[in-house]
């Protein structure tokens, strides 16, 4: 218990130095507060309600607040002081609240001496009614009796200055709350100068710790609070208010420009969100806990090209991000991989890389995409990830497919395998660039179950030599990956190969003596290279 959150909050409360709490209102802001170096968090009522889009008048229920607090406590190790408003009711509500806060690892609660439902202190504060002192003391006593952790703290917020009742009433109430068991007093003021809180602190004379919230008197030098001997200063709503300004500006900019180019450099990268969310821990856990058959494969998706044949559709985004049934092509490809248990996916970007930003993926950028082709993109991804412990799947960012394709590749016992469409004459690529193959045997019912291996891949094969169209899917077993990596690297180093495509690599592998298994099949894929293909992809997806 010596290092528990409740103990650490008590230490902050009892410190001879002025301590600071910063507001947080959800898990990610709690993480931000911790990383900024604060020793505690204020879960403020204004910000907690604002995140739900409701007023600070108990319109968010106490159970909704509890739910968010649980996420906050999970996201940080810091002690959290909840702005518990009036305690959400009478003594019975307060004692239940305390029990539930303890269950969720919350260090302390602050309750204010107003009537339920409350109104924010800065909205017509002088018109607000205060609670009966004896009744409010019953809330304090019930809360203290309900706590099971001796170090759990109940701070009582005195609203006498807010209501315009003066120092005498503030002192009378604070004395009563202190006698009822309050662990500290939060003295509140709506003035732009700290005269009221300083007068109270002087008169209080150290009977118990005093907490302040300098929202209105923010211009006061912090040393004034230090010299006065306050225990804690709470920066109560600055994170939310700064976020609102940033979000409003970003929303206006995107609405005006109808693109993301003008804002992308001014906002947090998606990777930063993943970091704050702890995505890396999940990836590590997946390595430890997922069944091996689901974790033994990874994929590279080559998506560097623009896809100029799509015209205006790719002016502001690459082809892989063109929408099919409301989702980018890339999203459909990733979903197919995920359905086959392949979650580790590296996407090679080139044209407008910032527009390719789907979550839970890693990215490698081919900055020379305009002057290079598929082989160079693959070499960049191979260089970026030296893990040879998993089977590797390679495919294109403009080819959608169903799980059957991956299942066919996985079931192959060969070290390197490709999938070949035997209905090449009916392909959408007929009459345009296509990767044709010659194999050791043509497709036929007679040799359907016989192993067939690649002999040559090219765009310009004579028709009588074509046995099918390579679909753009390649699987390399972990055993063969070192040799595959070497072959890719060797080819990429040759200046004349800057425009080399993957079919060149396939032929190179065969020439080096590799056995590339060709799996004959029909359909289950679509190469999206024209506006007509985009329309067809909608039905395929």
Fold topology:
Blueprint: H1 5-14, E1 19-23, H2 27-36, E2 41-43, H3 45-51, H4 62-75, E3 80-83, H5 91-103, E4 108-112, H6 133-146, E5 153-158, H7 166-180, E6 184-187, H8 195-204, E7 210-212, H9 222-228, E8 232-235, H10 238-257, H11 261-264, H12 270-277, H13 279-289, H14 292-295, E9 297-303, E10 323-324, E11 327-328, H15 329-339, E12 344-349, E13 362-365, H16 374-384, E14 391-396, E15 399-401, H17 403-411, E16 416-421, E17 436-439, E18 454-458, E19 468-476, H18 481-493, H19 502-511, E20 516-521, E21 525-527, H20 531-540
Parallel strand pairs: 1-2, 1-8, 2-3, 3-4, 4-5, 5-6, 6-7, 7-8, 9-12, 9-14, 12-13, 16-20
Antiparallel strand pairs: 10-11, 14-19, 15-21, 16-19, 17-18, 17-19
Approximate helicity band? 25-40%
Which descriptor suits the 3D outline? elongated
Gyration radius (Cα, Å) is: 33 Å
Number of strands: 21
CATH architecture of the largest domain: Alpha-Beta Complex
Segments where pLDDT lies below 50 for 5+ residues?
none
CATH topology of the largest domain: Spore Coat Polysaccharide Biosynthesis Protein SpsA, Chain A
What is the CATH superfamily label of the largest domain? Spore Coat Polysaccharide Biosynthesis Protein SpsA, Chain A
Total count of helical runs of at least 4 residues: 20
């Amino acid at each position: 218990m010596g290092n528990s959150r409740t103990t650490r909050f008590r230490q902050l409360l009892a410190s001879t130095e002025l301590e600071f709490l910063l507001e947080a209102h959800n898990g990610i802001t709690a993480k931000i507060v911790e990383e900024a170096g604060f020793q505690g968090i204020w879960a403020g009522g204004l910000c907690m309600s604002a995140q739900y889009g409701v007023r600070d008048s108990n319109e968010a229920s106490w159970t909704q607040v509890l739910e968010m607090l649980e996420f906050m406590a999970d996201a940080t190790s810091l002690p959290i002081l909840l702005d518990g408003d009036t305690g959400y009711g009478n003594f019975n509500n307060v004692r239940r609240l305390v029990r539930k806060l303890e269950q969720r690892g919350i260090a302390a609660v602050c309750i204010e001496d107003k009537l339920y439902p409350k109104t924010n202190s800065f909205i017509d504060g002088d018109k607000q009614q205060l609670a009966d002192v004896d009744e409010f003391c019953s809330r304090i006593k019930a809360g203290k009796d309900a706590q099971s952790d001796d170090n759990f703290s109940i701070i009582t917020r005195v609203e006498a200055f807010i209501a315009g009742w003066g120092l005498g009433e503030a002192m009378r109430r604070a004395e009563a709350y202190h006698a009822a068991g309050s662990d500290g007093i939060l003295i509140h003021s709506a003035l732009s100068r700290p005269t009221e809180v300083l007068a109270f602190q002087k008169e209080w004379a150290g009977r118990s710790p005093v907490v302040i919230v300098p929202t209105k008197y923010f211009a006061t030098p912090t040393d004034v609070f230090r010299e006065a001997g306050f225990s804690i200063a709470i920066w109560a709503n600055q994170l939310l208010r700064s976020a609102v300004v940033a979000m409003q500006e970003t929303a206006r900019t995107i609405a005006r420009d109808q693109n993301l180019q003008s804002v992308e450099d001014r906002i947090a990268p998606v990777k930063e969100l993943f970091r704050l969310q702890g995505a890396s821990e999940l990836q590590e856990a997946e390595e430890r806990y997922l069944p091996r058959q689901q974790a033994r494969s990874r994929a590279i998706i080559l998506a560097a090209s623009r896809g100029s044949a799509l015209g205006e559709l790719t002016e502001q985004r690459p082809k892989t991000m063109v929408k099919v049934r409301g989702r980018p092509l890339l999203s459909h490809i990733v979903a197919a991989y995920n359905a086959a248990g392949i979650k580790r996916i590296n996407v090679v970007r080139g044209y407008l890389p910032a527009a390719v930003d789907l979550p839970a993926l890693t990215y490698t950028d081919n900055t020379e995409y305009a002057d290079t082709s598929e082989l160079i993109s693959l070499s960049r991804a191979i260089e970026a990830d030296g893990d040879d412990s998993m089977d590797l799947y390679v495919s294109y960012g403009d080819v959608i497919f169903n799980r059957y394709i991956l299942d066919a590749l996985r079931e192959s016992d060969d070290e390197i395998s490709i999938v070949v469409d035997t209905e090449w004459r009916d392909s959408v690529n007929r009459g345009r660039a296509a990767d044709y193959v010659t194999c050791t045997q043509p497709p036929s019912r007679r040799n359907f179950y016989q192993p067939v291996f690649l002999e040559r891949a090219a765009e310009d094969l004579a028709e009588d030599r074509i046995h099918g169209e390579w679909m753009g899917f390649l699987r390399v077993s972990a055993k063969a990956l070192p040799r595959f990596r070497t072959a890719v690297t060797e080819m990429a180093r040759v200046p004349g190969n800057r425009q080399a495509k993957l079919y060149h690599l396939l032929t190179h592998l065969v020439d080096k003596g590799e056995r590339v298994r060709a799996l004959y099949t029909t359909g289950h894929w679509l190469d999206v290279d024209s506006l007509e293909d985009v329309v067809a992809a909608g039905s395929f997806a």
